[in-house]
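Order emerges. One example.
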Amino acid sequence: MVLSLTYRRPAHISRESVNTEKSTTAESLSSGSSCPYGIPDALSFDRIISGGTCPPVTTREFMDFLVYIEHDAENLQFYLWYRDYVKRWSELPQREQALAPEWTSEQAQHARNEAMTEKKLNGDAAQILKGTDFEPKVKKTGDAPNPFSTPPRTPSHEGRDSMAPSTVGWTEDGSTLGNGMGNHQKKSANAFEEVGAHQPFTIQPFREEVSRIIAIYVADGGVRKLNLSAKERTALLKALSTTTHPSAFKDVVATVEGSLRHQAHPNFIRWTICNGNPPRQRFAQGLGVGGIIGGIVYGIVITLSGAHRGWRALAFLGFFIGIATLFAGWKGMCVVLHGMHHRHLRPWELFASDDSSSNDYDLKKGSFDTLGSANSYEDEPWVAKYDKRNVIRKIFDREVWIQEPALRQIQDTIFLQALITGFLVGAVLTAIFLAVPKGNIF
């Protein structure tokens, strides 16, 4: 089973070309959602996320694609956090789970309706008061103290008060511990206030973690803010003001997972089919065009000469090789690399430590840190290093064997399509030259 959609050229990945198990939750979408895109089950979204695939179609490469190519990694980062959150929640004692009741569908619908009503009323009021002295202004709450976040004190062994571990602050991006009330707490408190939600109960399990998640993925100015509608955002915050139960994220997770399954995942598979970097693809396409031009020039010269008609058939070789190479290059593949089932290393892979294992690489990447900073890579060392490489060196960059059998099978199919296309079109063009009478010019 192969991809049925027309392949689209991937976004470029350097500055020269930049611009890279089924779900365990009840909220998971159907695993058959990949079928309409012609993606084989071996490369399904669930298999990739659960670790059932080989390079270059693993979760690590999927994350790299979203960071460096799609610039939309926050969806996968949030989704992976939620899966882990559900697992950790299920391992809590019942007495702790009871502190945060399940968020029901009726409550969720009520919150959505309430959000729509509030938005309409606020819009009507703003329209009526526009241009008057009573026009509502944006309330600046960024510096307002949050009375509900006063850090409690616990007796220390030295007889002095010390801050409880659960209230030790984190930096704005949630990646570094600091002293006092964390900026993430201020952000989450402001977010609750903006939607008119009550400040949450701090005794609920994972409340501190949820607060950081809100600051990073939901609150305005979050370094990994999700692309949520105002209704979804309001409904989520009102749910989280009541409970930290995983069901509070149900609607948002459905939106995020839908985007991953129906947009990011198919795009990732198309991009992964390319076995060469953009310079190699352009080089392959140039060779294809050169082969076609060579066949045409040879055919014209032999036709205009007095040579035997049979010599014209040799033009077929130029047409066949040129068209097949051009077709494969248009699909993002280099036939030479495919012959060895190799692919070029991506720029961010080229400069990774040669002695680091795959697991070490995963652990070192900030993109896999749920509470990490923004998904920006412009300052990563590989960007400047890759820019300094000349075009010839990029065309012949380091190669690595493609380990995933299903991906090799898709590439085999595209290669076969290229050969068939080259043969048929080459045969037609050769027949045209064979049918033209001799020129006898020289």
Notes: The first strand starts at residue 153 and ends at 155. Residues 1-35, 138-181, 354-364 have pLDDT under 50 and may be disordered. The two ends are 53 Å apart (CA to CA).
